[in-house]
Amino acid sequence: MKNAFGGMLLLLSMLCNSATSCNRMDSFIQPANIGENNSNENMVSNRIIIRIGAKSFAATLLDNSTAKVFKQMLPLIINMKELNGNEKYGDLPKSLTANSSNPGTIHNGDLMLYGSNTLVVFYKTFSTSYNYTKLGVIDDAADLASALGGGNVSVTFELQK
């Protein structure tokens, strides 16, 4: 089977090198992901969407083990509670392995893990003495505070399609 596939690639390569133009072979030859539910795009991309009511925010997850496990949990709807006029927090359905440290400054749009199972979305910039594991950042958090409002809110986290 491997040799037959290699022969097909060689034939396609010769066709692409002929007088007719063609796109790169990998644009139309994709390996099958037998037994996998995730598309290649979702496996590679660290992009997620955060939905708060009618507003959507694109976010980028960091390339760390905690963010990767968080991403595998998506989609999630989390009821988030207000705290200190600068953040919303809610518990994840399972604990993650944390690698916490003190960031010194929290920024508007930071997505962090407090402890091992509390997801925090920050909507103001301030100094902190607490330890967090950084998961990612909202790309454009200018309207985040108004979208989150002053009370508790339901927030949806999902993979970007």
Structure characterization notes:
By secondary structure, the protein is of the alpha+beta class. It is built from four helices and ten strands. Strands 1-2-9-6-7-4-3-10 form an eight-stranded antiparallel barrel. A two-stranded antiparallel sheet has the order 5-8. The chain is globular and about 30 Å long. Mean pLDDT is 81; it is low at 1-43.
Write the layout of secondary structure elements.
Elements: H1 2-16, H2 40-44, E1 47-52, E2 55-61, H3 65-72, E3 76-83, E4 87-91, E5 105-106, E6 110-114, E7 118-122, E8 126-127, E9 133-138, H4 144-148, E10 153-159
Antiparallel strand pairs: 1-2, 1-10, 2-9, 3-4, 3-10, 4-7, 5-8, 6-7, 6-9
Strand content: 25-35%
Radius of gyration from CA coordinates: 21 Å
Backbone shape: globular
What's the main sheet like? 8 strands, antiparallel, barrel
Helix tally? 4
Q: Give the beta-strand count.
A: 10
Helix content bin: 10-25%
Q: Residue-averaged pLDDT, rounded?
A: 81
Helix and strand pattern: HHEEHEEEEEEEHE
The helix-and-strand class reads: alpha+beta
Task: Order the strands across the largest sheet as they lie in space.
Answer: 1-2-9-6-7-4-3-10
Distance from first to last alpha carbon: 33 Å
Low-confidence stretches: 1-43
Features:
161 residues, alpha+beta, eight-stranded antiparallel β-barrel, two-stranded antiparallel sheet, 4 helices, 10 strands, disordered N terminus
